[in-house]
Amino acid sequence: MLSIFDSLREVTLLSVTIRMLLAVVCGGIIGIEREFKRRPAGFRTHILICLGAAMTTLTSQYLYLCMGQYTDMARLGAQVVAGIGFIGAGTIIVTRRQRVKGLTTAAGLWAAAIIGLTLGGGFYEGGLFATALILIAELFFSRLEYRMLKNSPEVNLYIEHTDKSCIEELLRLFREADMKILNMGIIRSDSTEKHNACAIFTLRLRKGTHQEDLLDQARATPGVVSVRQL
User: Fold this and answer.
1) Which partner from 87, 112, 124, 165 sits 20 to 30 angstroms from 211, CA to CA?
2) What is the CB neighbour count within 10 angstroms for residue 25?
């Protein structure tokens, strides 16, 4: 442990102030990255959760150390860990094309609550170090994740088209590019319906094939209205 924090381990006015300020700073640092990416839970949400968790631990310590009420100091913190799931679940959505979004934000909220608990308990080193690691994961690991998905050997395509001849052209395109069709689903529209027919392909790409090139070629196929990657 760092000796610089030794005088702040006790529950005093100075230590309480510093713990609350650190909870605001650490929660804000995590939340500002989410705010920048326009996620459902951003700057203020992370601050409030981290600060509230810190106050929970401080309240438990105060009841035990200052008020002399002999109770389990970890009980209130355990309720924070369980209760934060309700807020995290509210940030997770499933789009119309069955894409799950908001998992990273929900995990960040849960981590912000844990950091608040550690800072409220006086574990300054753990809270600050965890904040730095979370920020690295959200800022830099996201780029690594994007590169991994970009070079993924499998891809799911959602394609809207106007007539069945378009599907034959797409199949010919996939065969010429030496791609293996792992799964295919086609939803045809009646002549009386206004919306376009759609198809979902699961493809295994040949090594060295870029997903952007595949999407461009599919969009250039006659009869294709739109192409989206799932």
Assistant:
1) 165
2) 16
Residue with tokens 């690295």: 136
Q: Which domains does the chain show, CATH number per domain?
A: 3-147 (no CATH), 152-229 (3.30.70.1150)
Q: What whole-number distance in Å separates Cα of residue 39 and Cα of residue 12?
A: 37
Q: For the range 55-61, what are the long-range contacts, defined as Cβ-Cβ under 8 Å and sequence gap of 24 or more?
A: 55/20, 55/116, 55/120, 56/80, 56/116, 56/117, 56/120, 57/116, 57/117, 57/118, 57/119, 57/120, 57/121, 58/11, 58/16, 58/19, 58/20, 58/120, 61/11, 61/120, 61/121
- CA torsion angle 211 216 221 223 (round to 10): 100
CB neighbours (10 Å) of residue 129?
Answer: 13
92 sits in the region (left: phi over 0; alpha: psi -120 to 50; else beta) called: beta
Q: Tell me the whole-structure pTM to 2 decimals.
A: 0.62
pLDDT, tens only, 166-213: 888 888 888 888 888 888 888 765 554 555 678 888 888 877 777 777
